[in-house]
Design brief:
The protein is built from five helices and eight strands; from the N terminus they run ββααβββαβαββα. By secondary structure, it is α+β, with helices and mostly antiparallel strands. The protein has a single domain, classed as Gcn5-related N-acetyltransferase (GNAT) (Aminopeptidase). The chain has an eight-stranded mixed β-sheet, sandwiched between helices. The chain starts with a strand and ends with a helix.
Length: 182
């Protein structure tokens, strides 16, 4: 999946290094909003940081055998956020999804549609048996997405992530291929 048109206004596509400026601007514009739940924001200080991030995403093609695992969310021609598989464990055919959306793009149903497309891609193209989403217990907005999409709550990972000055627990949500097929 190099590009997947979800609707006339919304698509997923592979990142290119030409996206570095737009990704940096989106990250900086949303930084105060995103900082509550994303622990990596302080590592993004320049456009070159965003460029290196994109290069890492592109280099990830090797580990998946040529399948991209991370995508730009494009809404009405603008970079709106990212969605992708942070990890893929080929031993058990399980992918773990991560996502974020710029503050200005919230509340439009963008992420729900993007996740549905990524889940379909995971089961059909990547041949995954299970997809997981791990979300901080207090992140109500992000928790609503897997719950709405039919994921089952599988448990809590205590102090799973360090966010600047404190640990947060994660809820693990899972969706099996046979559950999705129904």
């Amino acid at each position: 999946m190099l590009r997947y048109d979800i609707s006339e206004e919304l698509s997923l596509r592979m990142f290119t290094v030409d996206d570095a400026d737009a990704l940096f601007e989106l990250t900086m514009a949303s930084k105060p909003y995103l900082r509550e739940w994303l622990g990596w924001l302080d590592y993004i200080e320049t456009v070159d940081d965003s460029k290196r991030n994109i290069e890492g995403r592109i280099n990830g093609l090797i580990e998946t055998g040529g399948y991209p695992k991370s995508f730009a969310i494009v809404y009405k021609g603008e970079l709106a956020g990212t969605v992708g598989y942070n990890e893929i464990d080929r031993g058990v055919q399980c992918g773990t999804i991560g996502y974020w959306l710029g503050e200005a793009f919230q509340g439009k149903g963008i992420m729900s549609q993007a996740l549905e497309a990524l889940i379909e891609y995971g089961f059909r193209e990547l041949k995954l048996n299970k997809i997981e989403i791990r979300v901080a217990t207090g992140n109500v907005k992000s928790r609503a997405l897997p719950e709405r999409l039919g994921f089952k709550e599988e448990g809590v990972l205590r102090e799973a992530e360090w966010l600047y000055d404190h640990y947060v627990d994660h809820i693990v949500y899972g969706l099996l291929r046979n559950e999705w097929a129904q």
